[in-house]
Structure formats: structure tokens, C-alpha cells
Amino acid sequence: MIENIPPCPKCSCEYTYVMNALVVCPECNHEWAPAEPGAEGTDAAGKQAVKDSVGNPLQDGDTVVVVKALKVKGSPSGIKAGTKVRNIRLVDGVDGHDIDCRIDGFGAMQLKSSVVKKA
After folding, report:
1. What 3-state DSSP class applies to 42?
2. What is the pTM of this model?
């Protein structure tokens, strides 16, 4: 149970209430899971923090290096280990693909953070 119920992150309403495992805002009907006190792995905005293969936190606009050779459908060669990817964007992707980027020679694609290292 939450002692101090946080205000709504969407509309800043202070009249939020707990319903089952969610906190609900009566004004904008926004529902969210409350952050546990001392929860690790989340950033200041409450989103899940994305970390690279060695544990460094990643942010939008970072440059990363692919640490493992990757096969790409429709491409005979794939992406080689050591390929530098600039200006990444963090997304809530499908199946663990949480980095949206553009790779020279391949175009736009999504990568898993477990196969890159911050440059």
C-alpha cells in the first residue's frame, strides 16, 4: 500500500487514488503503476532505464558500437561487430528491441540494448 499517493503525472491532479495495483486520476482517467520506494532501473521520469551490454545507461542521441555480429533479413552480409551507430533513439519496442537507429548501408532498424556498447 502506498502511504503518499503521488499526483497524476499527466495533469498534476492531486486527487489520485489507488485501485488494485494501479494509481488512478479522477480528472483525466490516467492509470499508472506506482514507483516503489528506492526502485532501481527507472529514471527520473519513471520510465525503465535502458542499459547497454556492460551496464552503462543509454540516452537519446548517444553513439553506440555493435559488440556482436548481427544477421539482417534480406542482407547477405549482416552487421559486423564494431559498427558505430550514431544518434540512437530509445523506444518501447517489440521483443526487447529498445533502440531505434539508422545504420549506414542498412537504413532504419531497431536493435536490442544487449548487443551494443556505449561509445
Report:
1. strand
2. 0.60
Cα distance between residue 118 and residue 41, in whole Å: 17
Domain limits of the chain? 1-39, 63-118
| Residue 87 to residue 93: CA distance in whole angstroms | 17
Residue appearing with cell numbers 503518499: 4
Per residue of the chain (119 residues), give pLDDT as tens. 556 788 888 888 888 988 888 889 999 888 888 775 544 455 555 556 899 999 999 999 999 999 999 998 888 889 999 999 999 999 987 888 999 999 988 899 999 999 999 98
Among the four given CATH numbers 2.30.30.40, 3.30.70.100, 3.40.50.300, 3.40.50.1820, the one describing domain 63-118: 2.30.30.40
C-alpha pair distances (Å), 107 with each of 73, 78, 100: 13, 12, 11
User: Is domain 1-39 given the CATH code 3.40.630.30 in the classification?
Assistant: no
